[in-house]
């Protein structure tokens, strides 16, 4: 059953890093994962919540209920830019599958208007729902945080079985997809980890991956939310730190890039 309303926490116009061309990115609240390095901690809880404004330090409410029609009307304001640049709308979060019916309704409405659609997802979703939703999606960003189920569950709070199944499915049907590994110190950054990832990707016939070196971009948001940032004293990584890591994927005939 379609859901006309849901909770979002931002609509960002003129995005150039969330898919092809110039895009409007709609951020949905709610995520079942609790990755300690999350750069959008305000997205994790589904309900609106108080947060200090980064500039004024006054309390604001992060998250509001919006209808599909309101969102599409906002997205359509930039239609000329999409047509000129090959852009469109991106749904991000949070995790869009946390508001599955709402996310699907937005994507369907966008496709009816001829808008190119992209999603950013953890791929942690019931497989049937994943299959159902991505028929309305032109481009997918997703990631795999760890190849080992127990380690994945211990750090993120969920296992990786559905994630791997859904990623494999998306590749198998020829979806345009960018698969990423967030490379996190003392979690998945060893050369042994890279070897395990590469072996798994060979088994799944996945031949390309993007490496995302760990960064501290979200640190201040935790303070504004009154939460502890567990990665506070962890040093950021840079592409030059991961050349040996990258080389392992290349040796497995996997196109690996930053």
UniProtKB/TrEMBL annotation:
Protein species of origin: Streptococcus constellatus
Gene3D superfamilies: Aldolase class I
Domain Radical SAM core residue range list: 17-255
Stated name of the protein: 4-hydroxyphenylacetate decarboxylase activating enzyme
A GO molecular-function descriptor: 4 iron, 4 sulfur cluster binding
Pfam families in the cross-refs: Radical_SAM (PF04055)
InterPro entries: Aldolase_TIM, Organic_radical-activating, Organic_radical_activase, Radical_activat_CS, rSAM, rSAM_sf
Recorded family membership: Belongs to the organic radical-activating enzymes family.
Enzyme Commission number: 1.97.1.-
Necessary cofactors: [4Fe-4S] cluster
Keywords for the protein's UniProt record, in alphabetical order: 4Fe-4S, Iron, Iron-sulfur, Metal-binding, Oxidoreductase, S-adenosyl-L-methionine
């Amino acid at each position: 059953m379609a859901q006309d309303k849901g909770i979002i926490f931002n609509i960002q116009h003129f995005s150039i890093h969330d898919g092809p061309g110039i895009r409007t990115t709609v951020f949905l609240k709610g995520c079942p994962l609790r990755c300690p390095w999350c750069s959008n901690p305000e997205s994790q809880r589904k309900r609106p919540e108080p947060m200090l404004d980064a500039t004024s330090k006054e309390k604001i409410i992060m998250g509001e209920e919006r209808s599909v029609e309101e969102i599409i009307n906002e997205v359509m304001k930039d239609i000329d830019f999409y047509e000129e640049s090959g852009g469109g709308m991106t749904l991000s979060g949070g995790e869009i599958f946390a508001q599955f019916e709402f996310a699907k309704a937005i994507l369907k409405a966008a496709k009816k208007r001829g808008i190119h659609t992209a999603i950013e997802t953890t791929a942690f979703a019931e497989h049937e729902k994943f299959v159902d939703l991505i028929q309305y999606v032109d481009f997918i960003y997703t990631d795999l945080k760890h190849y080992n189920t127990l380690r994945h569950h211990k750090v993120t709070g969920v296992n990786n079985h559905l994630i791997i199944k859904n990623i494999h499915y998306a590749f198998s049907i020829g979806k345009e997809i960018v698969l990423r590994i967030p490379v996190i110190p003392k979690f998945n950054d060893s050369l042994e980890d890279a070897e395990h990832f590469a072996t798994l990707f060979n088994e799944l016939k996945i031949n390309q991956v993007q490496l995302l070196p760990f960064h501290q971009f979200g640190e201040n948001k935790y303070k504004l939310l009154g939460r502890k940032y567990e990665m506070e004293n962890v040093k950021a990584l840079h592409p030059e730190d991961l050349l040996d890591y990258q080389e392992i994927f290349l040796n497995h005939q996997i196109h690996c890039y930053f």
